[in-house]
Every structure is written in C-alpha cells, then in structure tokens.
From TrEMBL:
It comes from the Bacteria. Catalyzes the reversible conversion of ribose-5-phosphate to ribulose 5-phosphate. It catalyses: aldehydo-D-ribose 5-phosphate = D-ribulose 5-phosphate. Belongs to the ribose 5-phosphate isomerase family. This is Ribose-5-phosphate isomerase A. The active site is at E105 (proton acceptor). GO terms for molecular function: ribose-5-phosphate isomerase activity. SUPFAM superfamilies: D-ribose-5-phosphate isomerase (RpiA), lid domain, NagB/RpiA/CoA transferase-like.
Length: 232
C-alpha cells in the first residue's frame, strides 16, 4: 500500500465521526484533501453538513466536491475539524504549516469542539522538531523579527538554520493572508509549549506551526492498519 492509500485510509476513518447536521472545519494538505473528497461522496448521498475551509485551495476542493461552505463569521462554533499534520508527538502536540495554511488552520481548530488529525504513521515522532517549524511573519521589519525569533530559540536552548520559504516562482512564498513564512530547522524541540508561548509574543510573528493542546485525536495509517491515539 502506497503513501497516498494510507492517507485515504486515515481520512476514511475520520469520516466515521461525522454526523448529519455537523459544522466542520476542513483542513489543508494532501491528507485533508482525501477527507474532503470522501466527504463530498457522502454529501452526494444525502449527508447534511457545512464546512469552513482552512485555505483557498481547500475551498476550491470543497466546491468541486459539492461540500456546502460557510465562514466563522456566519457560525459561532464548529463541531469538528479534520486536518493533517507534519508531525504528531505522544501528547498530540503538532507541527503544522508545511502547506502554508497554518494561520487559518489554527483559527479553525481553535473554534472547534474537537480536532481529529489524520496522517500516515511516518508523521508520528517521539519529540517535535525533525520537520522544519514554520513561523508566519509580516514582511515589514523582517530582520528585526528574525533576530527576535533567534533570541527566543536561544532562550529555549535551540538553534538551527532559518530560511524564508520560496514559492514555485522562486520568490518568497505568500500565504493566503499575504504574509511570509520562515522555516526553522531545529532538530529537537524539548519544550514545545514554552516555545509556542514565546514565539507568539514576538511583534511581527503572525502565527507559528506549533499546535499545542488543540488535537483531541490522531488517526495514523500504516502497514499494520490504523492506530488511534487520544490526547492524554
């Protein structure tokens, strides 16, 4: 079974938790795309749900699949968000943002009663940090922001290369919100909650890819089937 089939298995498992009348957060990325496609099949069969997409890409996918959409301005709370992750640790803390949608993903997850993470089991790690940590920043004052980020890393005993993410055109990747992303290769993040708090306090940092205490369940598909983890 290839990686894409594993991702679809995890998406199908998450779909078992969707009930008629739910308001859903729709994640971004290759695994979340499978969920949107499978959800569209259920909607075509009569399932009544409404979704809030976490990116313009997901919005287009949902519209293509016939999933009705709304916004967080029109609904006050979501029942469930289903999204992927770049890394998941045993406490179900996450690194997200490899697809560049971390800001909207975190807003939607925080507005949800429950978040299910779906991924292949290569995303499971004992400690976060192997995947580069995305930090979404405002381009204005970028050098000052980078210095402040480096200072926070040092305060947490971390160091590593920081690079502005490039888009397909070779220029800086621009998020749906009009911001840039710094990818930090830290190797191991020993205290993710502390780092998350310090990064969030930096002027110029819009958001970061550490999702702490947001995921309630992780469904990881591998060669031995799907493993389900609940937040301790």
């Amino acid at each position: 079974m290839n990686m894409d089939e594993l991702k679809r298995q995890a998406a199908a498992k998450a779909l078992e938790h969707v009930r008629d009348g739910m308001k859903l957060g729709l994640g971004t990325g290759s695994t979340a795309k499978h969920f949107v496609e499978l959800l569209g099949e259920r909607v075509a069969g009569g399932l009544k749900v409404i979704g809030v997409p976490t990116s313009e890409t997901t919005r287009a996918d949902a519209q293509r699949c016939g999933v009705p959409l709304t916004t967080l301005d029109e609904v006050d709370r979501l029942d469930l968000t289903v999204d992927g992750a770049d890394e998941v640790d045993p406490a179900l803390n996450l690194i997200k943002g490899g697809g560049g949608a971390l800001l909207r993903e975190k807003i939607v997850a925080a507005a949800s009663d429950r978040m299910i993470v779906i991924a292949d089991d290569s995303k499971w790690v004992p400690t976060l940090g192997r995947f580069p940590l995305p930090v979404e920043v405002i381009p204005f004052g970028l050098s000052a922001t980078r210095r402040a980020i480096a200072d926070v890393f040092a305060k947490c005993g971390l160091h590593g290369e920081m690079a502005i993410r490039s888009g397909k055109d070779g220029h800086a990747f621009v998020t749906d919100g009009g911001h840039w992303i710094i990818d930090a290769r830290l190797g191991t993040i020993t205290d993710a909650p502390r780092l998350a708090g310090l990064l969030g306090a930096i002027p110029g940092v819009v958001e970061h890819g550490l999702f702490i205490g947001l995921a309630s369940t992780a469904m990881l598909a591998g060669s031995q089937g799907i493993r389900v983890f609940e937040r301790p």
